[in-house]
Structure formats: C-alpha cells, structure tokens
Design brief:
There is one protein chain. The protein is of the alpha/beta class and about 375 residues long. Helix content is about 35%, strand content about 20%. The strands form two sheets. Strands 4, 5, 6, 7, 8, 9, 10, 11 and 12 form a nine-stranded mixed β-sheet that branches. Helix 8 (about 255-260) links the parallel strand 8 (about 245) and strand 9 (about 265-270). The longest helix is centred in the middle third of the chain and has 15 residues, at about 165-175. Its cofactor is Mg(2+). This is Mandelate racemase/muconate lactonizing enzyme family protein. Keywords: Magnesium, Metal-binding. It comes from Neorhizobium lilium.
Length: about 375
C-alpha cells in the first residue's frame, strides 16, 4: 500500500473590497486568509484540508511520512499531542480523510457510515444590518429555499448599542418571515476578539434575552454566556424553552465530553477544522446521540471546512440543520470559497455531497498561486 510521501502547507490572502464587517469583530476585514494543507502519497494522490493556521506543525512532518494514510486513528493521536504542545493542526486530519477516500475510491460521508449523501442547511448571516435590511435578507433566504436562518447579535461596542436593538432586528425578521423560517440567534457572548475587552452577559442578562426569544419562537440561542460558565449554561437551559447551543471555539474534545455528560447544552457545535478533526468529532456524534444532545457543527472557515463538516454530519450525524456561512454581498459563496475551482452551491437549502472520492475538493490552482503569501 502506498505511503504518505509529503506534506505541504501554504497560506493565502484574498483582498476584500468592499470589506466584511463581522458582527463578532466590529472592525472591517479587508482580507480573508486561508491555509491549505496537501498530503501526497507515493502514487501521487493528494488529500486537501483547510481551517486553522497549522501553527507549530513545522518539523513534525516525519511523524506522518512513510505511514499508511488510512491509519486515521493513529494520525489522530499524534495530532492530539501536537495540539497539546503547539497549535490546532486539525486541517491535516481533514486532508488525511480526503486522501484515504481517494485511496479507497469512496466519499468520506460513506466511509463514516453512509447515513446520507446530503445535509439540510441553515443560512448563517454575519453582518449587522438595520431591522428592515435584515428582514429583506431573510426574504432572500426564503426565496432560495433555506428552511432556517441564524441571526447575529452584536458582541461589542462596534455593533448595535444593546441587545434590545438586536431584538428589534429579530422582530423585524419574524414579522417578515412569519412561520416560513426557523430562526436561530448567535448571542456572541462565548468569546471575544483579542482587542475586545467588553464583558460577556451576566446570567440575568441572558435570562432576560431568553424571555424575548421565547416570544419570537427562536429555535436556539447560541453562546449566551462566557464559554467557561457551564453551570450558568445548564441553569439557563433549564430556565427557558429555547434550546441552548455552544462550543464552536472549544479546544479540547474532553470539554465536549463533560458538556455532554452534564447535559449543559441542548446543541453542541464543534468544528472539525478547529477541534479534533473528523476523527475526533465523530466520537462526539455518538456520545451526543446517546445523551439526547444535538450535534451540528460550526463551519465558518471556507468551503473546504464546510465540506468536511458536511461529510461528518451526513455520514454519521443526524442534525436538523448544518451551518452554511452565507451573507451576500459581503460574505458570498465566491469569497468564502476562493480556494476552490467552483464555489459550493446549495440546492434549495440542501448541500449534495455526491460520489466523488474523499471530500470532493477541487482547488483553483491559479487563484491559489495569485493569493499565496509567505
């Protein structure tokens, strides 16, 4: 059997004009960076991954070269040690799954269990707009066939003045959409950008917001408290009928294990590009199912990350919806997926994964050459 022959990592930057002003940041983003991981075997096949920056991986290539790319559990253990000592190098796990699929001739969703070859999507917005503009955006999502939309609340002084203004935007969406659209809310309280020193909500703040969201029939409220406050999250979960979701930036699978065992959240949202890779997160799929907790990944990286999370969710999971980062014009499919030869396209709110071996990633080599940075 052909062994791993090489691992290559490259970094790329796409200028954004007009800029993207994310609700969780507040400062306009004038470029979008992507890291591409390529794993090649001795027969010339190539697996592709992307997501985090792969900091700390350099110098560890020899731990993988010469090994069978299909020995995914072995590679996961090595990556978990690198994760402990250095950075989050989980994009390599994605690339190894892609390569293993090309070796076996199977799509990853089938390798993971084959429950389905497609996933239902929710449109994940990222920009803070006026109430009327948010309502118009919701109508566009409905026209495109999305069954659900995630609305962002402001996380800092760079956005709306208070959560009450956020609720006004949500009310406008509900009036426009009626019952045609499930609504989720990302409260943006779980973590902050490095420059942002504003405090997260208190439990009483979150409880007051939950009361408003109940009236608007919101499906879940995401990250309503600081990420470390699991007791507060559980108490909020028990105090409201709105589902409590979180965990998108959690760094260790053991933290998710504790969240599931404690029933602290209704919905867990790991991202295979940021924690555990596909190999680690598939453990969470089974743990969550047995505990009655919903598993539906965060996927705000790029199209490669969306595909990887979709394959796990389709193949092994049973999520009602999967996150689809999509907020025209600032966050279009073309911007999000610039490393790909063709941006991902949903079909009436579904993402079809098809029969292509591996993850189905096809890179735009010309674009990657033009955007490559040192």
């Amino acid at each position: 059997m052909s062994k791993i022959a090489s691992i290559e990592i490259s970094h790329h930057r796409l200028p954004l004009d007009p800029p993207f002003k994310a609700s969780w940041d507040g400062r306009p983003r004038h470029h979008f960076d992507a890291t591409i991981v390529r794993v090649r075997d001795e027969d010339g096949r190539e697996g592709i991954g992307s997501g985090d920056l792969m900091k700390g991986f350099e110098g560890h290539e020899d731990l993988f070269i010469g090994h069978d790319p299909r020995h995914l559990e072995r590679h996961y253990e090595v990556l978990s040690h690198i994760n402990f000592h250095y950075g989050r190098c989980w994009p390599l796990d994605l690339a190894l799954w892609d390569l293993a699929g090309k070796v076996t001739g199977e799509p990853v969703w089938r390798m993971l269990g084959g429950r389905s070859d497609r996933v239902r999507l929710y449109a994940s917005s990222g920009v803070l707009r006026s109430p009327s503009e948010m309502a118009e955006q919701a109508e566009r999502y409905i026209e495109e066939g999305f069954p659900a939309m995630k609305v962002r609340f402001s996380s800092s002084a760079g956005g709306r003045s208070s959560w009450r203004d956020d609720v006004k935007a949500l009310e406008a969406i509900r009036i426009q959409a009626g019952s045609r659209l499930e609504l989720m809310v990302d409260c943006n309280q779980g973590w902050r950008m490095p420059w942002d020193t504003t405090m997260s909500w208190t439990f009483k703040d979150a409880l007051a917001v939950a009361g408003e969201l109940e009236q608007l029939n919101v499906y879940w409220m995401e990250e309503p408290l600081h990420r470390s406050d699991r007791k507060g999250m559980k108490a909020l979960k028990e105090a409201t009928s709105v589902r409590i979701a979180g965990g998108e930036m959690t760094r260790e699978l053991t933290e998710f294990r504790d969240i599931i065992e404690e029933r602290a959240f209704d919905v867990i949202q790991p991202d295979v590009a940021l924690v555990g890779g596909i190999t680690g997160c598939r453990r969470l799929v089974y743990q969550a199912r047995e505990a009655g907790v919903t598993f539906t990944p965060h996927s705000w990286t790029n199209g490669i990350g969306v595909l990887a999370n979709a394959h796990l969710t389709a193949g092994a999971g049973d999520a009602p919806f999967l996150e689809y980062p999509y907020d025209n014009p600032e966050w279009s499919e073309a911007r999000r997926d610039y490393p790909l030869a063709s941006p991902l396209k949903h079909a009436e709110g579904w993402l079809e994964l098809g029969e292509a071996p591996g993850l189905g990633v096809v890179l735009d080599e010309e674009r990657l050459a033009a955007t490559r940075i040192a």
